[in-house]
Each structure stands twice: as structure tokens, then as C-alpha cells.
Amino acid sequence: MSPLLRRPAGQVGKVHHITPENANWGYVGFDLYRLSAGARVEEATGGQEVILVLVEGKAEVTAAGQAFGEIGDRMNVFEKTPPHSVYVPNDSHWQALATTDCTLAVCGAPGKGGHQARHIAPSDVVALTRGKGSNTRQIHNIAMVDQDFADSLLVTEVFTPDGNWSSYPPHRHDEDDYPNMTYLEETYYHRLNPSQGYGIQRVFTEDGSLDETIAVHDHDVVLVPKGHHPCGVPYGYEMYYLNVMAGPMRQWIVKNHEDHAWIIERDS
User: Fold this and answer.
1) To 5 degrees, how large is the angle CA 46–CA 96–CA 153?
2) What's the pLDDT tens digit per position in 46-89?
3) Against a cut of 0.70, is the pTM above it?
4) Measured between alpha carbons, how far is residue 30 from residues 23, 40, 164, 199 in Å?
5) For residue 1, is it within any domain?
6) Residue 266 neighbours by CB distance under 10 Å
7) What is the pLDDT of residue 20?
8) CB neighbours of 253 closer than 8 A, spacing ≥ 6?
9) What total of structural domains would you count in the chain?
10) In this structure, is residue 250 part of a structural domain?
């Protein structure tokens, strides 16, 4: 199995626990809880800010001493409506009580104390369509660069129709070379519809020092420490993924693979 692939540890409770230490990088953390109705979880943020994403289901959420009540209305991720999320600053505490079965993603990166806890409502999410033809996908920007309520985190989710490619043409963001490129580590949390499906993700560098082609299944996570990272899904299955990115600068500046950049030039 690829060292970049993380399979879920069971079907209930905390099924993913990715830290900068066990990912062997410096910024991004990602946990995933699959909770039954009535289950409660709580954590201290420590030095990380986090964004709690209600991928599916409903929960009562309290963060940094603020009670946000019951949030969430997307009961199945493939309803494709924008999610409810909560931003939690570093050096604070959060808790969630599942009021229905729910899937809760905990997206983390270093915090600087620059922002207050807040509910990110579906109306705050920037929805757009990217690409053309079999490169088309639907984007929900939960906390990207122009949404200035986080210190380090960049969080977005993507729906890729059956038979389509995503994160394509291949691009990378693995050099701290602002304004030409920014260094961003990234996780991909994948879902498939129907759930028995699979997708393909390739993570590769142009010099060949990293070249992994990974079959991803429902609830798998792929780590992208560097390189290009396109993914695709076969006909008959839809793919969802939740991206968490962070690095030394909260900017998203990428470089397309030189061999494939012509695709964007043709479609522009």
C-alpha cells in the first residue's frame, strides 16, 4: 500500500487521525469522526486552529465558549449542498454532540490567535464550477484565501461527476516561492457514490522522485506532501473530496504541469 494512503481505522468513532508528526510534514492535521446519534466528542485545539466540517448529519457544537446550537442539514454528502462548519481558534476547546448519525471532519493547521470562533453557514460558502468537458467539477470553498477568517487553514470540497477528472490539469504547490508559488501541504478525504466504487489519484513530481498511483475508496485519505496530484473517477461513480491545505503563507498559488498546461490555454 502506498505510504501516502491512509485507510479508515474502523467504521465508528475517530477513524482518521493525521498529524504533522505522523504525516512527516509541518502544518496540516486531519481527523475524521463517524458518530452515532447521541455520541459526544470534545478536544482541545492546542497550537492548532481547526475548522469542524459537518460532512453529513447534525450536531450541537460549542467552540471557544460559544454555543452554536444544532447545525448541519446535509444528511448525505452527495446531496451536494454546501456544508455547515465551525471555525475554532488555537488554544481553545470544542465539543460536538451528534443529534443524528453524522460525519465530522476536523481540519487543523497552526493558529496565531488572529480570529474568533464562528459558524460558517452554507450561505458563507463560495460555490463555483471549474473546468470544461470531462474536467468539470463543482467546488465549495469553505475557507479559501478570500474568506479571511483563518490564520493558516485553507479548506474546500469538490464534487467530481462520474467519468470525470479533477485537480486537473495536474498542478503543484510545493515551493515557498511567493508570488510565483506557495508551499502548501494537502490532504484529500475521499467519498464515492455508490460507496463500493473507487477512484484513482496520482501524486508525482516532475523529476520522478515521487510517483504514486493510488486506488482510493470511500473514506480513504491521501496525503500530498509535494508534486502534482490529479484524480479521476470511473463512469457510474461520483467522487467527493474534502481538501485541507496549509503552509507558511495563507495563499493558494499553484503551477500547472508544463506538459499539460495547454489544456487550460485551449479552454480559456
Assistant:
1) 45
2) 999 999 999 999 999 999 999 999 999 999 999 999 999 999 99
3) yes
4) 10, 18, 26, 20
5) no
6) 8
7) 98
8) 173, 178, 179, 180, 181, 182
9) 1
10) yes
User: Which one-letter amino acid corresponds to residue 209?
Assistant: S
Distance separating alpha carbons of residues 120 and 135, to the nearest angstrom: 28
Does residue 2 form part of some domain? no
Element (H, E) at 225: none
Residue in the block written with cell 496530484 = 229
Task: Decide if 79 is inside a domain.
Answer: yes
- The whole-number pLDDT of residue 12 equals 97
- State which residues form the domain around 248: 10-267
Distance between the two ends of the chain, CA-based, in angstroms? Answer: 38
Tens-digit pLDDT profile for residues 219-247: 999 999 999 999 999 999 999 999 999 99
For residue 25, the domain's CATH number is 2.60.120.10
Beta strands 85-88 and 93-98, pairing class: unpaired
The three-state secondary structure class of 97 is strand
Nearest CA to 106 among 26, 186, 51, 185?
51
Please give the single-letter amino acid code of residue 114.
G
Q: What pLDDT score was predicted for residue 268?
A: 60
CB 57 within 8 A of CB 76: no
pLDDT score, position 120: 98
The alpha carbons of the chain give a radius of gyration, in whole angstroms, of: 17
Distance CA 57, CA 163 (A): 27
Identify the residue whose cell numbers are 442539514. Answer: 73
